[in-house]
Write a structure and sequence with these properties.
By secondary structure, this protein is of the alpha+beta class. The protein has helices spanning 46-55, 77-82, 86-108, 113-126, 131-144; strands at residues 2-4, 16-18, 24-31, 41-45.
């Protein structure tokens, strides 16, 4: 059993837990029932799952062709090429978040222009290097007219 302070939600049970190399290391079991203790989560270690499957007569479990191995310590060369630069990942995540927030603001503009203005200013402040921030600036200029 693996215990962490990583929160899980209803429906996460059975989901994979991977390490920094993207290797399967455990399966999500659940969390404590008390709402205050939801940040304490439990996972079944991969070695326990393998032992269980072996005991049930499943000597070899075949997954996808590019199966994830818990015993590998270094990603394969083809997997390394797929790893993105952290700065690029961060920029993509910011762009996606900003675009999502902008879409919600556009629903507010007509009926709640003051709230929309506040949200647009937040997008410009928190996501300055995104396309959504540029669109937010343009919408702010229209609102000020």
């Amino acid at each position: 059993m693996v215990e962490t302070s990583s929160p899980v939600n209803a429906g996460d049970s059975g989901g994979p837990v991977v390490n920094g190399n993207g290797e399967l290391v455990a399966i999500t079991q659940g969390h404590l029932a008390d709402e205050a203790a939801r940040s304490i989560s439990y996972f079944i270690d991969l070695s326990e799952i393998k032992a269980f499957l072996k005991a049930k007569g499943h000597g070899r479990v075949v997954t996808q062709p590019a199966a994830i191995s818990a015993s590998a310590t270094e990603p394969k060369a083809e997997d390394k090429a797929a790893v993105k630069d952290p700065a690029v990942e961060k920029a993509e995540k910011a762009e996606k978040e900003a675009a999502s927030k902008l879409a919600l603001v556009q629903l507010l503009i007509k009926d709640h222009p003051d709230r929309a203005r506040d949200r647009l200013e937040e997008i410009v402040k928190n996501y300055p290097d995104t396309k959504a921030a540029q669109e937010a600036k343009a919408l702010l200029a229209k609102l000020k007219k």
